[in-house]
């Protein structure tokens, strides 16, 4: 965990960078292209998009124009809820590949656990994995009971679970469950969407102590907790700032103080209360 390109090894041996650029709400076209290009210039080697973000084309263009080799970048995309089901997943995957302008995906995720559908959806992902069209497969927004159902019905264990995770929602129980099964945790909205967390007295105190920004303290807490993190920004200075987390260490004692901030507070949708899944 010493450099921006540092990776964690997934259960199937594939290396996944600890830090990636999130592009939710980065607009298709110039905005997302500039963000991805900036990130690659700064040294990011992972990008997190999704079919529903409607910016896969821009992500793909920026990747191709960057001059960075395709196999040096870890590319994640996600299967949208409306496309869940076996055959529809295979079709949606082809569409994502076409838009991204690549012939494989590094990590393909089931975006949300759509009731009654996610097992079939995941079986299609297993097929894509066996066919060598994705290097890793996983899920997003899965709670323990979703994972238990999936694990009881799948042949290839999901390699990643991407969920909302930050100091106010530290997901301890889920992290322990995943760690015991060698499922890598990944944090979405790690910065709580850039809101009040930056003003929290402890985060400010630690930012001062370590000579870092509040965002850097939070992102460093992620990776020191063995959590892959994908902060989103379309602002070049922030993209750079968010990457400068590999040159310091938060002490064990200060990590515990950040851990103690948990309030089980969400800034995004709770997977249990998501209408589209009913
Ligand atoms: P983040 O917690 O990453 O926050 C992003 C916001 O914070 C943006 O408004 C950004 O502004 C601002 N910001 C970023 N860096 C800084 C900084 N250093 N200082 C101050 N403000 C900053 O929220 P997201 O919800 O975007 O989550 C990150 C990624 O996770 C997404 O982009 C997406 O890839 C993924 N995700 C996945 C979900 C899922 O269901 N699987 C759900 C939600 C997100 P600006 O861009 O203007 O610079």
Strand order of the largest sheet: 3-4-5-6-7-8-9-10
Q: How many discrete domains?
A: 1
* Number of beta strands: 10
- The CATH superfamily label reads NADP-dependent oxidoreductase domain
Task: Describe this structure as you would to a colleague.
With 278 residues, the protein is an alpha/beta fold. The protein has a single domain, classed as TIM Barrel. Helices cover 39% and strands 15% of the residues. The chain contains ten helices and ten strands. Strands 3-4-5-6-7-8-9-10 form an eight-stranded parallel β-sheet. Strands 1-2 form a two-stranded antiparallel ribbon. Helix 3 links the parallel strand 5 and strand 6. Helix 3 crosses helix 4 and helix 7 packs across helix 8. The model has no long low-confidence stretch (mean pLDDT 97). NADPH dihydro-nicotinamide-adenine-dinucleotide phosphate binds next to helix 9.
Give a concise summary.
The protein is an alpha/beta fold and 278 residues long. It has helices at residues 30-42, 56-66, 86-100, 118-130, 144-153, 172-180, 201-210, 214-224, 236-243, 252-259; strands at residues 7-9, 15-17, 21-22, 46-48, 74-79, 105-110, 134-140, 160-164, 184-188, 228-229. Helix 2 (56-66) crosses helix 3 and helix 7 crosses helix 8 (214-224).
């Amino acid at each position: 965990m010493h450099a921006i390109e540092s990776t964690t090894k997934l259960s199937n041996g594939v290396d996944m960078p600890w830090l990636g650029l999130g592009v939710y709400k980065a607009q298709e076209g110039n905005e997302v292209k500039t963000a991805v290009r900036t990130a690659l210039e700064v040294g990011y080697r992972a990008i997190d998009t999704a079919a529903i973000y409607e910016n896969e084309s821009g992500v793909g263009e920026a990747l191709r124009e960057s001059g960075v080799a395709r196999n040096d970048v870890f590319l994640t995309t996600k299967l949208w809820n409306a496309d869940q089901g076996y055959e529809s997943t295979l079709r949606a995957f082809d569409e994502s590949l076409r838009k991204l302008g690549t012939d494989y995906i590094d990590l393909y995720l089931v975006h949300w656990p759509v009731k009654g559908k996610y097992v079939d959806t995941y079986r299609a992902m297993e097929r894509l994995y066996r066919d060598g069209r994705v290097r890793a497969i996983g899920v997003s927004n899965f709670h323990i009971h979703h994972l238990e159902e999936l694990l009881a019905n799948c042949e290839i264990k999901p390699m990643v679970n991407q969920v909302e995770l930050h100091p106010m929602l530290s997901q301890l129980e889920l992290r322990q469950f995943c760690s015991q099964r060698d499922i890598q945790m990944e944090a979405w909205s790690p910065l709580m969407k850039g809101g009040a967390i930056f003003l929290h007295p402890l985060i400010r105190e630690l930012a001062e102590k370590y000579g870092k920004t509040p965002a850097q303290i939070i992102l460093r807490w992620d990776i020191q907790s063995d959590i892959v993190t994908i902060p989103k920004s379309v602002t070049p200075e922030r993209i750079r700032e968010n990457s400068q987390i590999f040159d310091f260490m938060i002490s064990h004692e200060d990590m515990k103080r950040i851990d103690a901030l948990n309030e089980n507070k969400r800034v995004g949708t709770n997977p249990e209360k998501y209408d589209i899944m009913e």
